[in-house]
């Protein structure tokens, strides 16, 4: 990548869940505008790494630096603010609110940030249009296909104009066609806006969309290779 300075950097991360060590000294860099795939077997620490980098959980050891600031030392209020404004998160099963329409789900981060309902709905509708699901705006998650729901989840992650998108197995519950649609939309949007993407996946075809690939094994980085 043209910018050698990482936007987000983890150094020697350690994290245990009870007696299980999920991370054992993992280190990784993510640069602005870069798509980085984190691959590895189930239980290798991929999701825990993402959670530490996104400030969802705090590591037991090591450091996470974002924009030159120690993310792991920030108070929870500031972390919550970052997740509302500069970070976007897409989970495997979308985690859309079932009682809300697609439009309201996408508008929610904007409303929480203080936007008016009219402005939030206008911007949410634009993102649904960009991701090809404007026709599902008034549907609730239960009335959408898996691919439609995941693109709606992606719209919700992108609507605030985040600097980093964390995607945790975003195609894991989708068929091959829906997976291709979601990844094409994610990559196109990231390239267009200069958003950095940390992509957790066990699928080699999904990882091939990334600029680089980091492989985790038993909680440590075991290999690094260029994929594009």
Please give a structural write-up.
The protein is of the alpha/beta class and 228 residues long. The chain has a domain at 33-44 and 80-226: Rossmann fold, CATH 3.40.50.300. Helix content is 34%, strand content 27%. It contains 7 helices and 10 strands. It has helices spanning 46-53, 76-85, 102-112, 117-130, 146-158, 176-193, 204-207, and strands at 8-17, 20-30, 35-39, 61-66, 69-70, 87-90, 164-168, 196-200, 212-217, 220-226. A 6-stranded mixed β-sheet has the order 6-7-8-3-9-10, with helices on both faces. The chain has a 4-stranded antiparallel β-sheet with strand order 2-1-4-5, with helices on one face. Strand 1 (8-17) and strand 2 form a beta hairpin. The longest helix is centred in the last third of the chain and has 18 residues, at 176-193. The chain is globular and about 45 Å long. The chain starts with 7 loop residues before the first strand and ends with a strand. The mean pLDDT is 90.
